[in-house]
Design a protein that fits this description.
7 helices, Tetracycline Repressor, domain 2, single chain
């Protein structure tokens, strides 16, 4: 994301929040970000990849909380308590970032990002 200033990424996030994922085009995002469509397409092949990039920092923060945050979300609590805390945190995450999450949900693309795999392993470990 470093090649695209945060203010331009914010423009894309605003469009998702204002209109909903289904009503934002790549042309809309390029126009709001003040870049050409070609510039946008060189880095992001579709709207889902932009939404995924926008979710990245939020997902990193949640991962950090799981790895080193205070219990019960972080280490040190019984597995059942950590699982319940993860469920609560994930529910809050989706509420806070619903437009981006919906924008990223295209086919299998959402299931192949690193964060999703991390969460799947985390839950599997807690259940086991």
């Amino acid at each position: 994301m470093a090649w695209w200033p945060d203010t331009r990424l914010d423009a894309a996030a605003r469009l998702y929040a204002e209109r909903g994922a289904a009503h934002v085009t790549m042309n809309d995002i390029a126009r709001a970000a003040g870049v050409g469509r070609g510039t946008l397409y060189r880095r992001y092949p579709d709207r889902a990849s932009i939404a995924t990039a926008l979710l990245d920092e939020h997902e990193r923060r949640l991962q950090e909380a799981l790895l080193s945050g205070p219990p019960p979300l972080g280490p040190g609590a019984p597995p059942a308590d950590r699982l319940a805390a993860f469920y609560d945190a994930m529910t809050q995450f989706l509420e806070d970032h619903a437009p981006l999450a919906l924008g990223a949900e295209v086919g299998r693309s959402r299931f192949i990002v690193g964060a999703y795999g991390f969460w799947r392993v985390h839950v599997r470990m807690l259940v086991a």
